[in-house]
Amino acid sequence: MASSHLYNLPADAVWFITGSSSGIGLGLAQQIASHPTHRLVATARNSSTLSGLLAQSERVHIIDLDVTSDNAIDAAVDSALSKFGRIDVMVNNAGYGLMGDTESALQPEGQAKARKQVETNFWGTARLSIHAVRVFRDENPKSGQQGGVVLNVTSLGGFAGYPGTAFYHAAKFGVEGFTESMSKEVRPEWNIHFCLIEPGGTSTNFTRAGNMDWFAPHPAYAAADSPSRVLEGYINDPAMQKTWTPAERVAGAMYQVVALAKSRPLPIRLPLTEGAWQVVKNEVAAVDKELDKVKALSLSVEIDGSNKAGQFLVDNYY
After folding, report:
1. Residue 211 domain-assigned?
2. 244-277 pLDDT, tens per residue?
3. Which Gene3D superfamilies match (predicted)?
4. 284 vs 282: CA distance, rounded Å
5. Whole-model pTM above 0.85?
6. Which is nearest to 146 in space by CA: 133, 159, 155, 158?
7. Which domain holds residue 59?
8. Segment holding 272, helix H or strand E
9. Whether residue 168 lies in the annotated active site
10. From its phi and psi, is residue 135 left (phi > 0), alpha (psi between -120 and 50) or beta?
11. How many CB atoms lie within 10 A of CB 221?
């Protein structure tokens, strides 16, 4: 459920963005850096890739950040607060791409890659989201601001699952559940808001050669018509990649959804691209249809209708 409260983005807002070196993160970082009054904390594993943002150096703070390191996260947040005194928008965008046959994860090398994906895509986001809530509630009021916004980038892969990306979905579904839960924990007077960003096909370096990691192929799925091979073919097809939405347009919509929150509450989910919106609609319709099919069996386990667990959750959290 989205927050029913509005959020007024400060004129001198401080944006903290992970994964700022390319794609959506870079597009958003460039937009914030070019804004005449906003301030930017841009992070990347190798901050030398962010040198192009230094033209607005007084309002831009660049930090090395490996989101799999607790110490690095703590230090980055402390550095941002030392520089600007607060954080208004936390954008968790950093990610690690891994595809391939799920059975390959049973091999030692495959298991290490799978764990790295969950550590980066889930735990990095979770740690920074927790830091953000603390900063929004306890630190921002010291400079006259109350609250803030967490934007967690999951992709449509946080809402629907596809072949050959099981651990990616495990991490991104985890981020969606984590974000929903945390959004229902915070008190309204803290003025803290969450939004899940779900881009569809977007032109970034995430899937380019050298940036996407792969499990070693499993012989049981070697056939060209195996579902995973079909999806890999689509992702690696340059002609298909040319049809994807420019990352800058996705970044622009992310900025807009925060800027417009002064007049309409942030949604808990924001699918970006027509394809992502349609996938979410189709997935919701499919779940609704399946619920109708299993309704009789689902309700048959009740004895006398005295189980009030579901009603409690509906009454309190929806």
Report:
1. yes
2. 788 899 999 999 999 999 999 999 999 999 889 9
3. NAD(P)-binding Rossmann-like Domain
4. 5
5. yes
6. 133
7. 14-293
8. strand 269-272
9. yes
10. alpha
11. 17
